[in-house]
Design goal:
By secondary structure, the chain is an alpha+beta fold. The chain has five helices and five strands; from the N terminus they run H-E-E-H-E-E-E-H-H-H.
Length: 161
């Protein structure tokens, strides 16, 4: 009876965006385990799931994407159940900007000084930033001469001596 209890769990090896394998023990027999069973143990969201399988047509191991939770997990060429989990970028903003506010009531919450400050920051142009940088560079050049150059200097001075 004790052996029966140990055989009802399955070791699933999985890779998360890198080459180091992780191990989860799923309380389901290896001949009946599904992607949904694995997801009950692995609670992180935002991944695409791939199962390593031996492809007879190619004659080597391939990674097959699994989307349906009822899909049965199969053993790879080495006899293990191996999954490869890749981050899904569907919900990640990669452009470096924040999403626009879609709810109009949120836009109305900026009032008074907050709205003025927001508009000033929003309208600050690259021209303004460039002129500030030019002013700082001019001040730095006026203060430095051949004897006051430090290791953190922005320019190289060639001595005529």
């Amino acid at each position: 009876m004790r052996e029966e209890a140990t055989t009802t769990s399955t070791k699933v090896y999985y890779y998360l965006d890198d080459s180091t394998p992780y191990l989860s023990v799923v309380p389901v027999a290896d001949d009946a385990i599904t992607l949904g069973d694995f997801k009950k143990v692995f609670s992180k969201k935002g991944y695409k799931y791939f199962c390593k399988q031996l492809d007879e047509a190619v004659g080597c191991e391939v990674k097959v994407e699994i989307r349906d939770d009822s899909t049965k997990l199969v053993k790879s060429a080495n006899g293990l159940i191996e999954l490869v989990l890749l981050s899904s970028f569907d919900n990640v903003y990669c452009s470096g900007t924040l999403p626009r506010v879609s709810n109009k009531t949120n836009k109305g919450q900026l009032t008074g000084a907050k709205l003025k400050d927001f508009n000033l920051r929003k309208r600050r142009s690259l021209h303004d930033l460039a002129s500030e940088n030019r002013d700082l560079l001019r001040i730095h050049r006026n203060k430095s001469d051949e004897n006051s150059i430090t290791a953190s200097s922005l320019s190289t001075v060639i001595s005529s001596k």
